[in-house]
Design a protein that fits this description.
globular; Rossmann fold; five-stranded parallel beta sheet; 403 residues; 16 helices
């Protein structure tokens, strides 16, 4: 229970803070967001990737709206039963409005009931949240078919260029390859920013919400997986590595929590069989290269795996179905659209005489299996065109695919 005067002060102070806050560079994803009646627009993503800033950019385009951030510690006693009081404060302070913005709404228990009430009343609602599973579960209870989702990631390469006022070049791309896209880290350049971010996410979005009994162990697993991006792994392998965990089911739940918090992602091996996709080894990728480099010691010169991780994130933004391929050889990424595979992509920072056959053989095998005439090798800066066994192979700098 919270008092009317307290809500009024919070609503006013948050609204005043919007006026004084720098909106930064305009995020490219803003063009994808349009408020609609009867639909809640949900912007989800890892903490500190810019969701709140994107919300502010949208609010600065509007004259009439309501806004509340549930990250505010003064709202710790706010419950779903207080929403009528909040509505009264909104109306008294800003008149009758139809557009609502809520930041980090997963901090309010049973928030979906309030949002459903607003939608049923013909309101337009835009919300942000940082936990994929939590948001999906609650959207699926009261808001099935009434929500549109957008995942926001840290800065893309082109957003990084805008934010740093750098020109597109090989050197700029290599800076981004290791720095990543978290705005605070780019601005300050302090590794502590990304150290603390990882610990904060694990603490607030995983341990606190899921009653984790061994918080040290899940942190160790997160760091281990960040150090093994772009590699295959199985639950049994992880269980052997972390023998203190008694079962693979516990490992699976920990991995699921790390994915829900947007720290890590897993990529399935391509198969037409759902069962095979579930039991085959998966590859692990991270949300951001800067987060990887700051929290591990393995990547001072490993351009190849960092480039593969970056390409994964670029592709994940664009495509719903993404896999890796392994038969006799391996191909890094298979893109499936509707019922057929449409693109096959290999990633290699620099194609040389030593690795050319390996990279080409994996790509060719995938192209032949899916009857494709063209395939890609994304590189650090190489650009070329090859014809092998009647198939066209295009070498392109990965930064040309970054938007």
């Amino acid at each position: 229970m919270i008092l009317r005067d307290e809500i009024t002060k919070i609503v006013r102070s948050q609204r005043d803070a919007i006026k004084n806050r720098d909106q930064g560079i305009i995020r490219h994803d803003i063009i994808k967001i349009q408020p609609f009646q009867n639909f809640a627009i949900l912007i989800s993503g890892i903490r500190r990737c810019g969701k709140s800033t994107l919300l502010i950019q949208m609010m600065k385009k509007e004259e009439n709206f309501y806004y509340l951030s549930f990250e505010d510690p003064r709202l710790i006693d706010f419950t779903i039963r207080d929403y009528e009081l909040l509505e009264e404060v909104f109306h008294k302070e800003y008149g009758s409005q139809d557009l609502y913005f809520f930041d980090e709404i997963q901090n309010l228990a049973e928030w979906e009931y309030y949002i459903r009430h607003l939608l049923d009343s013909g309101k337009k609602v835009i919300i942000t949240g940082s936990n994929a599973s939590l948001l999906s579960r609650e959207l699926g209870t009261k808001l099935t078919g009434r929500n549109l989702r957008l995942e926001l990631f840290p800065f893309s390469y082109h957003e990084f260029l805008e934010y740093t006022n750098k020109e597109d070049s090989d050197d700029s791309f290599n800076d981004y390859l290791f720095t990543g896209g978290f705005p605070d880290y780019i601005r300050l350049g302090l590794l502590e920013v990304l150290h603390n971010l990882l610990l904060d996410i694990i603490s607030r979005d995983i341990i606190y919400r899921n009653n984790i009994k061994n918080p040290v162990l899940i942190t160790e697993i997160a760091v281990y997986l960040l150090g093994n991006i772009a590699r295959e792994m199985t639950l049994s392998q992880l269980q052997k590595t972390f023998s203190a965990i008694g079962s693979t089911s516990t490992i699976a739940s920990y991995l699921s929590h790390l994915e829900d918090a947007y720290i890590l992602f897993t990529l399935s091996r391509f198969s037409y069989s759902h069962k095979s996709r579930q039991i085959n080894p998966k590859k692990v990728y991270a949300i951001d290269n800067g987060l990887v480099c700051a929290n591990t010691t393995d990547f001072s010169e490993d351009y190849g795996r960092l480039l593969e991780n970056l390409v994964y994130i670029m592709l994940r933004k664009k495509y719903r179905e993404l896999y890796y391929f392994r038969e006799k050889h391996e191909c890094d990424f298979i893109i499936k659209e509707k019922t057929r595979v449409t693109k096959v992509i290999q990633v290699c920072y620099e194609v040389t005489t030593r690795n050319k056959d390996r990279e080409i053989n994996g790509l060719l095998e995938a192209m032949q299996m899916f009857d494709l005439k063209e395939g890609y090798i994304l590189t650090g800066k190489q650009e070329d065109e090859l014809t092998v066994d009647g198939k066209k192979i295009l070498l392109k700098p990965a930064r040309l695919f970054s938007e």
